[in-house]
TrEMBL record:
<feature type="region of interest" description="Disordered">
    <location>
        <begin position="305"/>
        <end position="325"/>
    </location>
</feature>
<keyword id="KW-0804">Transcription</keyword>
<protein>
    <recommendedName>
        <fullName>HTH gntR-type domain-containing protein</fullName>
    </recommendedName>
</protein>
<keyword id="KW-0805">Transcription regulation</keyword>
<dbReference type="InterPro" id="IPR036388">
    <property type="entry name" value="WH-like_DNA-bd_sf"/>
</dbReference>
<dbReference type="InterPro" id="IPR008920">
    <property type="entry name" value="TF_FadR/GntR_C"/>
</dbReference>
<dbReference type="InterPro" id="IPR036390">
    <property type="entry name" value="WH_DNA-bd_sf"/>
</dbReference>
<dbReference type="GO" id="GO:0003677">
    <property type="term" value="F:DNA binding"/>
</dbReference>
<dbReference type="InterPro" id="IPR000524">
    <property type="entry name" value="Tscrpt_reg_HTH_GntR"/>
</dbReference>
<dbReference type="Pfam" id="PF00392">
    <property type="entry name" value="GntR"/>
</dbReference>
<keyword id="KW-0238">DNA-binding</keyword>
<feature type="domain" description="HTH gntR-type">
    <location>
        <begin position="81"/>
        <end position="148"/>
    </location>
</feature>
<dbReference type="GO" id="GO:0003700">
    <property type="term" value="F:DNA-binding transcription factor activity"/>
</dbReference>
<feature type="region of interest" description="Disordered">
    <location>
        <begin position="1"/>
        <end position="27"/>
    </location>
</feature>
<dbReference type="InterPro" id="IPR011711">
    <property type="entry name" value="GntR_C"/>
</dbReference>
<dbReference type="Pfam" id="PF07729">
    <property type="entry name" value="FCD"/>
</dbReference>
<feature type="compositionally biased region" description="Polar residues">
    <location>
        <begin position="1"/>
        <end position="10"/>
    </location>
</feature>
């Protein structure tokens, strides 16, 4: 009986193959950042990345910062949810610091390069900013920070007047802990004046009104006030050091009036500050040339990094105890 020929064909290979997207991902990267995350973490370990600390510090007044109390294996999902909000908040801070001015083109590619994010993540942040009325999309041109017209300035100041007078009626007199928080905010303004950091000082002067809204522990009201203050920043030129000292003195008097329960004086000071924002500048600034977004955002990112370094990390209940050798 003749033996049958030996089967020399190659063994059957499974039909399933990794997608080209998976083939392009370096070994080891897929374990820490699944392909569902829309931003690149090339060269970053999400579990120890400073991005987590920066997001937690900047979004500490939002429930989103609590997402990082999850098991570390879910930090990538938390970054997926939070990072567009982080980009939105940094951009808002740059507007309030007068680093991004009307007429600036917010290029998706430049923002993606500045934040190390994908265009999809940046686009989500820009859509959020568009909902605040701070960004407009122009067909075939891109995203732009719009000029604030006279009617828009009037409407913004009217909204601020209604909201902030209501805040005074609900918070005066200030309890001791809230008064101490106000004095700390004033101390940060004074430190920025002494350092000559006019951009950070401009942000703090606008953020003071956000702090007033935060007294009511209402996140919706706080975010609305943040949008209104960003709009006001777009309508006004950057304050000079002399103007900043005057505004800082008015804020100092306002906090003391609120602490003492002097509602009439507090309301008078606040209304005077809002009225000054309703008057457009006599010589409107010329449309600026498109700035380099990475350079414009750099001071804000450096400041956030410095604030993150000074803040203590929040305890993580899932952190593994260290073993002594």
């Amino acid at each position: 009986m003749q033996n049958s020929p030996r089967n020399t064909t190659a063994p059957h290979k499974p039909r399933h193959r990794a997608s080209r997207r998976d083939d392009a991902v370096p070994a080891g990267w897929r374990r820490t950042c699944p392909a569902s995350i829309p931003y690149s973490t090339m060269g970053h370990n999400l579990l120890s990345s400073p991005r987590i600390a920066a997001c937690r510090a900047l979004l500490s007044d939002m429930a989103m910062s609590d997402k990082f109390n999850r098991n570390p294996e879910q930090h990538d999902r938390a970054m997926n949810e939070v990072f567009p909000v982080y980009i939105e908040r940094v951009t808002l801070r740059a507007v309030m610091a007068h680093l991004l001015v009307p007429g600036t083109c917010l290029s998706e590619g430049r923002l993606a390069d500045a934040f190390g994010a994908s265009r999809a993540t940046v686009r989500e942040a820009l859509v959020r900013l568009e909902g605040r009325g701070l960004v407009r999309v122009v067909a075939k041109r891109g995203w732009f920070i719009p000029e604030q017209g006279r009617e828009e300035i009037r409407a913004t100041c009217e909204a601020r007047r209604i909201i902030q007078i209501g805040i005074l009626r609900l918070t005066v007199p200030l309890p001791p802990d809230r008064a101490a928080a106000g004095l700390r905010h004033l101390a940060r303004q004074r430190a920025a004046m002494e350092d000559g950091d006019i951009s950070h000082l401009s942000f703090l002067l606008a953020d003071f009104h956000v702090w007033l809204a935060r007294l009511l522990d209402n996140p919706i009201l706080t975010e609305n006030m943040r949008s209104l203050m960003a709009r006001s920043s777009l309508a006004l030129p950057r304050p000079t050091p002399h103007d900043a000292r005057i505004i800082h003195g008015e804020y100092h008097a306002l906090v003391h009036a609120m602490t003492a329960g002097d509602m009439a004086r507090a309301q008078k000071l606040l209304l005077a500050r809002i009225e000054s924002a309703q008057v457009p500048p006599a010589c409107p600034h010329a449309p600026p040339s498109p700035p380099d977004l990475k350079t414009a955002l750099a001071p804000v990112l450096r400041r956030i990094k410095r604030e993150t370094a000074h803040s203590s990390p929040a305890p993580n209940p899932y952190r593994q105890p260290e073993t002594r050798v």
